[in-house]
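Supplementary Note 2. Why include the ligand at all?

Several targets in our set were suspected to adopt different conformations when bound, so apo predictions alone were not considered sufficient. For every target with a known small-molecule partner we therefore ran a joint prediction. The input for CA2 is given below.
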Amino acid sequence: MPATKKKTKSILLLNGPNLNLLGKREPEIYGKETLKEVEDKCIQLGKELGIKVYCEQHNSEGGLIDLVQAARGKRDAIIINPGGYTHTSVALRDALVASDMPVYEVHISNIHKREAFRHHSYITGVAVGMICGLGTQGYLLALRAVATKLGL
Ligand code: CA2
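The joint prediction is reproduced in token form.
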């Protein structure tokens, strides 16, 4: 019998509105690293773990939903920081459910230490888990959690 080749696991790392400004504004809340630096670290860790990391960022709700829909059937999981849409978007939540991918939610800041309107997330209820308040390290921790779940 011919040996079957195992397909490399892959994930979508998706960042929402304004996260393209990482490292350029409000470093006291979001740190000094740029989004590109964070993405590069995730790609590198992904290589070590055996996961190909596809990075996307979009500022609009529809743009994020399109990216989630496009990942369906292609990626094994999604790590998402939905930015401000965390607290407002039923539509993004619906898209994540419809994607059939396990969802890992990440927030750089501790949303529960901030304004009351940030305390509720529409995403957490459909996520495997949520990491917040650990800075950009949260993305790397989420990636490690994905690897464990995928048996890598
Ligand atoms: O802590 C997080 O990661 C947030 O998802 C960030 C969102 C905020 O609305 C959420 O409540 C918590 C805001 C993203 C804005 O990103 C910026 C990054 C650098 C400079 C300015 C904004």
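The domain at 9-149 is CATH 3.40.50.9100 (Rossmann fold). The two ends are 25 Å apart (CA to CA). Comparable summaries for the other entries are listed in the accompanying table.
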